[in-house]
Fold this sequence. Notes:
The chain is an all-alpha fold.
Amino acid sequence: MKLHYENIVQEMLKVIPQLQQTYSNELDELWKEEGEIPPHVAFGNILNPFLINLLVDGKSEKDTQFILNVFGFIEEMASCDDIEVRNVVSTTIMARIGDDFTILKQALKYMGKETKRLALEIERFYGRKDNVELIKQNMDSA
């Protein structure tokens, strides 16, 4: 399926079904009237904590493969024609990962070329020079 801003939350839940319960809980608690959680909120409140936990705790070969699958989906988003989908990657996912240098360093092992490009763009915007240098050092290893 082609990714669009309107369908990326549902696509995320297909790729990462482990997030379905958290999504349902947040929907029931905070977004019942709207009937859905907006993409930036869904990725920020649901995907980011899950992904960061995986990057910190995921040590097994099974975890590594799963992290690669998650970053494969993020790379698909980062390569999408829809600028709003790419904005979710840069301003919601990559900006949060870049809040912690150690997590960013770990995440770079799994990022594809376009994801790294968006990460570099947001880190430059925030003026986080150490992060910019780290990403630049890892740009060729996508």
